[in-house]
Specification:
Chain lengths: ~290, ~240
């Protein structure tokens, strides 16, 4: 029973990693851009929620709702004025620029909020739990996983059922031909990054409610997100959820053996999956 | 009498330092079908890329209904009323047949003469395959999707770059059988063809290109075989 409990906790933890990763996966799927500042943008969103919550005395969920349009705008501006200028056949410039952005965000946050750890307080719900068959699960981890599933489902609907999603896929297939259809790839990219930042805000909400955060924790979140995306298969959103769960379960199992092994076992699972399936669990056919 | 729908004057085009077009002139009259023929590397596709805004051109070198469009980007040219069936079809592999057609009407729907149903009437086989991935079709069917996709914006000018390339003669005949209906919609058409026989059959006017220049231009029945041969391959010594 202890193993079942551990696996369930791991799956729930995977929901958090999938949320970290979903925005990264979306952006990579559409424009083949690896955003090295993704983790820091999540932390930035957490500080934005914190600011809104303390200024207006709101509950973090409402704070996140208000932060979403702001982060969408920030993503749109970032893509339009910075990333679109460096996207091209060479993958190095966008990597360097997003790496630089990561450093800028961390230092900006340190300047503005100091290195103290912060937390978003959600009240009694934080400690609440409920029995689920033979195991007991925390309400907060359960909410996180449910949110991750909803986010991935919504992104899939957007991708496969809407006019905008059609433009996303066409642009990702062939930006020149998309231009012949009247699609402006740069606008499409700007909207995609805006959407990714909305998802990053949801990730930030759970990050901030479940643990302490400070300006320096972005890069570690990026690594989990990155591993989840690669395990799942580049460009596959459901794959990203599966990837998050693989890392979550591996970490939980590692921690059950020896608490010091938690982080390491996540990375080992990542390497093992890559050894067996170099293109991830659900690779896209045409990459 | 009104002027040409599309007129091109002294158009030059470059790939970096390499000059691919050297002062091309041509005019497409309202309702006309113009065929552009020429050997590999003559600059036919380059001309299409320049018209559609994929390659930059001087502002006044290309005019649509008298308005300069040379400086416009590809989406702007589409909105102005020119759409293209690109060389090699270039369907979107992530999109189904129907989505490939719908994306043709993503921003411009023009006169609304062509709708999804209209395209399925034109090419009934596509209705059966509507949910297949665009790239899971035969070459001829893919070409039909590419033509339908270009029609969905209801263009004033339709450009077709080598739609018969790599297709069996019977399939080519089927595809060209759709042209009378396409012209009924009011679109003026430019077809780029290496298949001279096919080009001469449907065209009101023929231009032959060689090494980035128009070397011959005239009505199909006014051009002798020898004149076409010389313009196509260069005058033999
Ligand atoms: N992307 C490119 N970069 C550099 N040069 C190019 C490029 N595309 C075409 N060219 C050159 O421009 C010239 C004209 O090419 P273009 O594709 O327009 O010929 P074409 O008449 O369409 O030939 P084909 O019948 O083979 O399609 C050729 O010399 C070709 O090598
Ligand atoms: Mg060509």
């Amino acid at each position: 029973m202890i193993w079942l409990d551990t696996i369930v906790q791991g799956i729930l933890l995977g929901g958090l990693y999938a949320l970290f990763a979903a925005g990264l996966s979306l952006v990579f799927g559409i424009m083949r851009l690896v955003n090295l500042a993704h983790g820091d943008l999540i932390v930035l969103a957490a500080f934005l929620i914190l600011t809104i919550v303390s200024a207006l005395g709101l509950n973090p969920f409402l704070g996140a709702l208000l932060a979403m349009p702001v982060m969408f705008g920030a993503g749109w501006l970032l893509q339009t004025y910075v990333l679109n200028r460096v996207l091209g056949d060479d993958i190095l410039p966008p990597l360097l620029v997003t790496f630089g952005l990561s450093v800028v965000i961390q230092n900006g946050l340190l300047e503005g909020f100091s290195a103290d750890s912060q937390k978003l307080s959600a009240g009694p719900i934080e400690a609440a739990s409920l029995p689920l068959g033979p195991v007991t699960v925390g309400v907060m981890p359960l909410l996180t996983l449910i949110s991750a599933i909803l986010v991935i489902f919504a992104l899939n609907q957007l991708f496969y059922r809407t006019r905008l999603g059609r433009a996303f896929r066409a642009t990702s297939d062939d930006a020149v031909t998309a231009g012949l259809m009247g699609i402006r790839p740069r606008n499409v990219f700007a909207i995609a990054t805006g959407v990714a930042m909305v998802v990053a805000t949801i990730a930030a909400l759970y990050l901030g409610m479940r643990a302490n955060f400070d300006p320096t924790i972005g890069p570690a979140r990026l690594i989990y997100a990155f591993e989840a995306v690669i395990i799942g298969g580049l460009g596959s959103l459901w794959g990203t959820l599966a990837g998050g769960i693989v890392i979550g379960v591996a970490q939980a199992l590692g921690a059950a053996v020896n608490p010091e092994w938690q982080i390491l076992s996540g990375h080992i699972a990542f390497i093992l999956v890559l050894l067996v399936r170099p293109r991830g669990l659900f690779p896209r056919a045409n990459d | 009498m009104t002027g040409p729908v599309l007129s091109i004057e002294n158009l030059t085009a470059y790939y970096g330092d390499f000059q691919a077009l050297f002062g091309v002139d041509l005019a497409l009259q309202q309702g006309q079908a113009l065929a552009i023929i020429g050997a590999n590397g003559a600059g036919k596709s380059t001309l299409m890329r320049a018209i559609t805004g994929i390659l930059p051109s001087p502002r006044d070198a290309i005019r649509l209904n008298g308005q300069p469009i040379g400086h416009l980007s590809a989406p702007e040219v589409l909105e102005a009323g020119i759409s293209m069936v690109p060389e090699g079809r270039r369907l979107f592999p992530s999109l189904s047949v129907e989505e490939n057609l719908l994306i043709g009407a993503h921003v411009r729907t023009g006169s609304r003469y062509w709708t999804l149903d209209g395209i399925y009437d034109l090419f009934p086989i596509l209705a059966e395959r509507r949910h297949n991935p665009g790239t899971a079709l035969s070459g001829g069917q893919q070409q039909m999707v590419a033509i339908g996709r270009a029609l969905m914006s209801n263009p004033d000018v339709l450009l077709c770059d080598e739609i018969s390339l790599g297709l069996a003669p019977v399939v080519i005949r089927d595809i060209y059988a759709s042209f009378p209906k396409i012209r009924e919609s009011g679109a003026s058409v430019i077809v780029v063809e290496q298949d001279i026989g096919q080009a001469l059959k449907i065209a009101d006017h023929v231009c032959c290109m060689m090494e980035g220049r128009v070397t011959l231009s005239g009505a199909p029945d006014a051009l002798s075989r020898d004149a076409i041969h010389d313009a196509y391959f260069g005058v033999s010594a």
